[in-house]
Amino acid sequence: MRRSSFFTRAVFIGVLMHLYVGLRIIPELPIGLPAKLLAACALALSCGLIPLGMLARTFERQPHVDRIAWVGLMVMGLFSSLLVFTFLRDIVLASALTIDALWGHVLLLDRWRIDTAVGVPVLALLSTTIGFINARRRARVVSVDVPIEGLPASLDGLTIVQISDIHVGPTIKSRYVDAIVDAVNRLQPDLIAVTGDVVDGSVAQLASHTEPLGRLTARYGTYLVTGNHEYYSGAVQWIAEFERLGLRVLLNEHVVLEHQGTRFILAGVTDYTAGRFDEAHRSDPAAALADAPDDVLLKVLLAHQPRTAHAAADAGYTLQLSGHTHGGQFFPWNFFVRLQQPFTAGLAKLGALWIYTSRGTGYWGPPKRLGAPSEITRLRLVAVARV
Fold first, then answer.
1. Which of these, 270, 250, 266, lies nearest to 258 by C-alpha position?
2. Residues 6-9: contacts with CB within 8 Å, 24+ apart?
3. What is the pTM of this model?
4. Strand (E) or helix (H) holding 205
5. pLDDT tens digit string along 135-156?
6. Which residue, among 310, 320, 317, has the nearest Cα to 296 in the 3D structure?
7. In angstroms, rounded to a whole number, what is the distance separating the alpha carbons of residues 200 and 14?
8. 107 pairs with which residues across the strands?
9. Predicted local confidence at residue 58, as pLDDT
10. What is the C-alpha separation between 20 and 349, in angstroms, rounded?
């Protein structure tokens, strides 16, 4: 009932947003009445397609469902840009009106209204096209050195390749995953970290498309933690499937690994919100270190959401690897991520704890990335002298 109520409110808000765009842009376009009616019909159609695209993964029949999802999510990406550029246009026009009032009608306001009305759909189409290309090409490899004070010389140069937020689902399938796996394996990492949100759908729907993950190869293995989307998609079943593929799933637990004669700890926690879905999966960075040896200096934590960092710092971890944010994925949502998460993207520090937040290796929702490129992250631990 709660989910149904939320969806109803979301649809209602979506309708209001479409009305706003339509009323602000369509009357100003330099086109005839039939074309304006067609534009209004297109916006009305968008109102229906976007919810269908969001709901598509809950339907059972494929590939028709995937086609609906593709259309609905593409429309969502386009409308998002229409909404943003319409709002920015209104700010520009309000500024122009103020300037014109103060400096004695120096601006051709009618021309501004028409030109900016035309500019909104043009810019929206252009940004959506560029965003689509960015999202659909294979994630680039980003190399990051993590300077760690007092790191034993034998652990200097240890490499971890992180992938995150692939979101295998209606628009991301096995070919996309295959390309990621090939790129990761070419890096020949010491270990691979998969930091959640691998899937958007059930095991029955997507098992064949996550199969390539079983080819991930690293010296010390591949380790995975759950993200919030695993819990939307049947976490218990997916954990079993990931284990079947040969990925070690860390559920508030750790392993002790050894590199060049020196031990280090790799721990993993369930998603920050997992306790809402299953009390037994409540995220606990401190519990993940239970019975860990006291003499191990390097402690790495895999945690899907960056906001786990405060608990991780208290528990004494050295480095936390996270995802979840997508770096905002596309403008302007990168600014809103900061309202929920303490870190948006890249390397940061909280006390003695380093945190790396991946922008994600796939995308969620609209196949669109703008200003927040996807990434496969190669992290290299670098020893630095204690200050």
1. 266
2. 7/51
3. 0.91
4. helix 203-210
5. 999 999 999 999 999 999 999 9
6. 317
7. 22
8. none
9. 65
10. 42
